[in-house]
Amino acid sequence: xxxxxxxxxxxxxxxxxRVTITCRASQGISNYLAWYQQKPGKVPKxxxxxxxxxxxxxxxxxxxxxxxxxxxxxxxxxxPEDVATYYCQKYNSAPPYTFGQGTKLEIK
Amino acid sequence: EVQLLESGGGLVQPxxxxxxxxxxxxxxFSSYAMSWVRQAPGKGLQWVSVISSSGGTTYYADSxxxxxxISRDNSKNTLYLQMNSLRAEDTAVYYCAKGARTTxxxxxxxxxxxxxxxxxx
Lengths: 108, 121
Hints:
The complex is a heterodimer.
Chain A: E1 4-7, E2 10-13, E3 19-25, E4 33-38, E5 45-49, E6 53-54, E7 62-67, E8 70-75, E9 84-90, E10 103-107
Parallel strand pairs in A: 2-10
Antiparallel strand pairs in A: 1-3, 3-8, 4-5, 4-9, 5-6, 7-8, 9-10
Chain B: E1 3-7, E2 10-12, E3 18-25, E4 34-39, E5 45-51, E6 58-60, E7 68-73, E8 78-83, E9 92-99, E10 108-111, E11 115-119
Parallel strand pairs in B: 2-11
Antiparallel strand pairs in B: 1-3, 3-8, 4-5, 4-9, 5-6, 7-8, 9-10, 9-11
């Protein structure tokens, strides 16, 4: 099975900072990669799919990039409402459709 | 507005069974794959199972294969997860999630509020 590894596991940054979270697949998955945001006590929400396509309604400060095995989620200017845990998920042809272990983002 | 409403969670003894339901509205249910994802207390998201729009294709995580069965009734706009031989490690909030495509190779664009399953004696 393909493993999805996120780094870092946790991150503390200041409002206005540029934040980058990395997701690495153990084998190539083309661009079949989604990013989700889960705020404390809330339901996960889709941010990005196909590695770099922003879901409708998601602020433009969020962006995604990558293909193959290495992917990044970037927040260009961190806002207080971005405090959350972020997960990547692969959804290419072969199940399981594994999630990364999550990256917990806090405000410094 | 897409709505997914899970039900059927609760407390069950090890070895017991539960059936979760997810009532869908606000979209053409029969046109989209659906998934179950779970989250143990204080832990990350774990993909559990997926079913294609027609119900003809299903996949499971190894940890639940042979014990859980995903199904759907497109006439009732409802997704199900039959869970048998439950173990303590199955304790989690179970989310129903809508796929963005007909096929199982899809990301999840809407999620329900979740239903808590607790396996304990």
